[in-house]
Amino acid sequence: MEVIKTEIEDLYIIKTKVFKDNRGWFTESYSSEKFRSNGFDIEFIQDNHSLSKEKGVLRGLHFQLEPKAQTKLVRCTRGSIYDVAVDLRKGSLSYKKWFGIELSAENKKQFLIPKGFAHGFLTLSDNAEVQYKVDEYYDPKYDRSIRFDDPEINVDWGIDNPILSKKDRNAPLLNYSDCNFKY
Q1: Of residues 85, 93, 91, 139, the one with CA closest to residue 115
Q2: Sign of CA dihedral 90, 69, 140, 119
Q3: Structural domains of the chain, count
Q4: Pairwise CA distance, residues 166 & 151, whole Å
Q5: What angle do CA 104, 107, 111 make, to 5 degrees?
Q6: Which of 50, 89, 126, 143 has its CA 20 to 30 A from that of 165?
């Protein structure tokens, strides 16, 4: 397992070793032992799996408030996505900064997003499947969203009119959010 630091503290790209031969390929997509040996003390307790049928679907920016905040390990297992994390930890040097990466079935990269970040993705292909592990159960009482196009954050999604859910279309700007993360 290769751990690649991003320009934002605590945000990592994970690359697993892929073994290929004439039959196809194999990778160990997750190993708690390897995560621990790389300094990550995370107990993932739930796996989530989504399908977005069309290119241009944007899901996000989502997070759960404390005390139900989630660490996420995200990967795209079919098609490709542009995956984005936004630092919402007040007091962090990278507060309101974002980082984006292409995740795809082809590149097999994973994105480790800690508590205190909002997460979203844009599908770059039809029929994109995203799978991610979380270390806290979903709780609708703590579920929050902020606008994907919040001008204070200014994520460059590379699209003018994404396909949005009603929830994401009506999400508030960060200034109007009750986000409670501290660094």
Answers
A1: 85
A2: positive
A3: 1
A4: 20
A5: 70
A6: 89
CATH code of the domain in which 135 resides:
2.60.120.10
Residue 181, in any domain of the structure: no
Q: Are 59 and 155 in contact (CB under 8 A)?
A: no
Residue 52 resides in a domain: yes
**The residue to which tokens 């503290």 are assigned:** 9
Task: Tell me the catalytic residues.
Answer: 62, 132
Range of the domain at 158: 2-176
DSSP 31: -
How far apart CA 75 and CA 103 sit, in angstroms, is 6
Ordered per-residue pLDDT tens for the chain, 183 residues: 999 999 999 999 999 999 999 999 999 999 999 999 999 999 999 999 999 999 999 999 999 999 999 999 999 999 999 999 999 999 999 999 999 999 999 999 999 999 999 999 999 999 999 999 999 999 999 999 999 999 999 999 999 999 999 999 999 999 999 999 999
Residue type, 105: A
Residue 182 lies in a domain: no
Q: Does 183 fall in a domain?
A: no
